[in-house]
Each structure stands twice: as C-alpha cells, then as structure tokens.
Amino acid sequence: MQNTIGKLDSFFKYIVVGLLGFAIVLSFQFRIVALTHKKISFVIMVILLLAAFLILNIWLFIFQKVANKKLTMLFLILVIAAPRLLWVFLMPTKPVSDYLCFYSYAQKASQGFLKGYDMTFTLFRFRFGYSLILAHVFKIFGSSIIVGKLFNVFLSVILGLIIYFTVDYLFGKEAATYSAVLYAFWPSQIMYNSVLASEHPFIVFFMLGLYFLIRAIKEKKAIFGLFAGVFVAIANHIRPVAVVIIIATVFLFALKALCKDFKNLKIAILSIISYVVTFYTLGYLIFCLTGIPVWKTSMGLNLMIGTDYTTYGMNNPKHSLFVKTYGYDFQKMHGEAMKIGLERLRKETRKFIAILPRKHAIIWGDDSFGYFWSTFRVYKATPFVNLVKNHPTIFYVFSQLYYYVILIYIILGILSSKRNANKEIFLLLDLIFLGYVALHIFLEVQPRYHYPTIFTLFLLSGQGVKWLREKFKRF
Fold first, then answer.
1. Looking at the DSSP assignment, which residues form a beta bridge with residue 378?
2. Contact, 69 vs 350, CB < 8 A?
3. Are residues 301 and 319 in contact, defined by beta-carbon separation less than 8 angstroms?
C-alpha cells in the first residue's frame, strides 16, 4: 500500500511542481505588465527574483540563529500582529463591492435585522457565513469598520499559529519557524487585513480542518476526523470551495480501499458524516435566521464567467448586468448562466482553451490582491496613503517577488520529500491543489482565489527552507 501511495505521490508532485513553475513563468509574461502597465524585461525580473530569494534566505537563516526558542510563540504573535496593525491604522481602506455588502449586512444583522435585504445574498448564499460571523463580532465590540479590521488581525495571528503547529507536527520546529516567519512578513497578507473579506475567517477554519485531517491520517484516530469534518463544513459556509478538501479526502481513502487498506475507513466515514451533519445543521440555523435556504447553491454564474474568453475568465461589469436582467431570480439566473457556459465549452472550445494559460497566470501567479483592494478606495488621503498609492509599481513588484520566493520554497519542499514519512499527507496536499486547479479551469478566476490552495501547499515552505539550509551547511 505504502509503495502505491509513494508512486502516486511521486507522480502528482511533479505535476504540482510543473504547474507552480509554469505559474511563475506565465506571471512574468502576463501579470507584471497588466499590474504595472510597464514592460519589465524577463532578465531583470529573474535577477530581482534571485536577489529576493538570496535576501530572504539570509534573513531566515540569521533569524533561526538569534531566535530565543523559549519565547518563540510570543515573538511569532508579535511579528505577525505588528505589521498588520501598522497597515490597518495607516491605510484607511473603505469597503467597496462585495466587502461593502459584507459590512452593511453584518452591521444591520448585529442590530437584529437578519433577513436577506440585499438581493445579491439570495443569489450568492455563502455570503451569509462571513457576514453573520462579523455580525457577532460587531454585537460585542461595536460595528465600527476598525473593529472588523482588528478582527482580521486577530484571525491572522490565529492562522499563523495554526501554520506553525501544523508544520511543527509534520517537519519539526525549525521548519515551523521558517514557515511562520515567511507568513508574518507576506506583503499581500499584511495589506489584505484592511479589507473586510470573507477569506480571513474562511482560511482559518479551512486550515484548522486540514490540521485535524492530517492528524487523523497520521495517528489513525477517528476523533480527529470528526473535528476535521466540522471545521471544513464551517469553512464551506463561508466559501463553498472548501468542499474540495472533502473530495480530495474521499479520493485518497478510495485509493487506499482499492489497495485493500481499510484501516482508515472509519476516519473517512466519520469525517464525511461530521461534515454533512455540521453543514446542514448550520445551514438550517442560517435559514431560520434569514429565510434563505443556504444549502442550495449553484455555480452557474461562476461557470459562465469562467468560460468567458473575452475577459480571460474574470468578473466584469457586464456580468453584473446579466444578474440584474433576471431580476435576482436564483433558479433562472444560475440556470441560464449554466447553459451559456456549457454552450461555450461545446461550440467555442478553441477560444476557451486559448485563454487557459492566462487563467492559470491570474489565479496562481498573481499576488496583487492585497495591495489592490487595500488601496482601491480610502477614506482620506494621508501622506502615507499618497506615498503608497503614488508608487504602485514598487508595491506590485515587491508583492510578486515575495510570492514567487514562497512558490520556490514550496517547490523545494515538495522535491525534498522523497524520503519523508509523510507520503499520504503529501498526496493529500497534492490532491487538494490539483482539485482546485481542475475546478478553476472552468470557473471564474481572481488572484485572491488561490488563497486556500497556496496556504495548503505553504505547509511545505518551511521544509523547503530547512532543506536548503542543510544543503548550504555542506559547503
């Protein structure tokens, strides 16, 4: 069985490495120009990337030597929170678009107005998840926008600790420290804290579910599988794509069953049962509060947008007009959108295939969402705001370089895993990533949609740094 899992892991990991490397190259070609409106030569970008990689390595290696092991947790909390708090208070981001919908609903819901007065909530029912969480925070601390932003910082600290403990469990404290520090200074993740986005609580529950799933597989304890199902179900009410974790889990255990390994069958069954029970229990509670059956979802519009070759699979104002055309009727709008998407795939296959490299670059090779959304609209123009907004090229390139380095560390973590005992875990992480890749070939893409999958693979980044440091020690 282990031999079969090992072979599958080897097969899939090279596909994952290829796709990540492809994303970096495509990003050089498509995203840098789109973001900066300047043509920066490929050679210069490679030199900058190598410089960023070298600088970050030196910083991480120095940090590992000077870090006080007894104060690691306190230090990590401080280095995660400090830059995020600084950005939140210096960048007065104004909620717009979906983020304004989340804030407005949460504000009213905290005062007892729970019905779905915003018609878009009836079409995209997962919006209730984050909005209701935010409403509870507002009820306790007040409904000021700064409260929501500070809640983001709190969630970021929790996420950093989840990353640390998960990587520590898999690879040890050295790798865990590297991953946590990489996360602490990740530019897009710092800047995104000033945006009231559903990704903040979503990724916390998503990664918490993944942590317990990893423990369930390694320790063969069904109770961890139960916790995994609960947290993934909560995440799925915030963003429906969390279900990919369950699909990947089912696929993994199906492979084990085919190889006549039924030891973990109890874990798989309990995980799925706890997921289903939690998902529908929460769905019913939300239905009682809002009157909207949130368990009824559709990806019709998502498919229509994702197959739109004129926008490279990204959302566009014309898609908003399409929604209004059907009077916010859930069945009609999603049904018609689904027909259009399927028709494009059938009749305009070549045009659809032609945009796939750009779609891949947009979702997997672009880390611009932190800067873009945190500076898109602001309440007032301070000297700091003017400085940041007047130099977008610097911030975009800096964000991209940091992200590329993270992808390189992930690739090194994957390639250095040949003799590691976590074959089943590596296979699970590969399956989650490949599941998202397959899904977004057809569905809408946005740079921020890589959030859950890159964090899944991010668990390997510290191992990549650790392996590199061990190699350097030999010279």
1. 93
2. no
3. yes
Residue 125 burial by Cβ neighbours in a 10 Å radius (0-12, 13-18, 19+)? buried
> What angle is formed at CA 354 by the lines to CA 353 and CA 358, rounded to 5 degrees?
105
Kindly state the tokens that stand for 59: 């910083």
Residue 20, token pair as written in the block: 């990540």
**Coil, strand, or helix at residue 157?**
helix
Nearby residues of 458 by Cβ (< 8 Å), 6 or more positions away: 163, 179, 182, 183, 406, 410
Q: Determine contact, residues 106/69, Cβ cutoff 8 Å.
A: no
User: DSSP labels for 396-436?
Assistant: HHHHHHHHHHHHHHHHHHHHTTTT-S-HHHHHHHHHHHHHH
Structure token digits, residue 106: 């949460």
pLDDT in tens, 281-328: 999 999 988 888 888 777 888 899 999 999 998 988 787 778 777 767
Q: What are phi and psi of 91, to 5 degrees?
A: -110, 100
**pTM score, whole prediction:** 0.93
- State how far the Cα of 111 lies from the Cα of 310, in Å rounded to an integer: 43
Residues of the chain scoring pLDDT < 70: 1-6, 66-70, 116-118, 259-263, 327, 418-421, 474-475
Question: Bridge-partner residues for 93, per DSSP?
Answer: 378
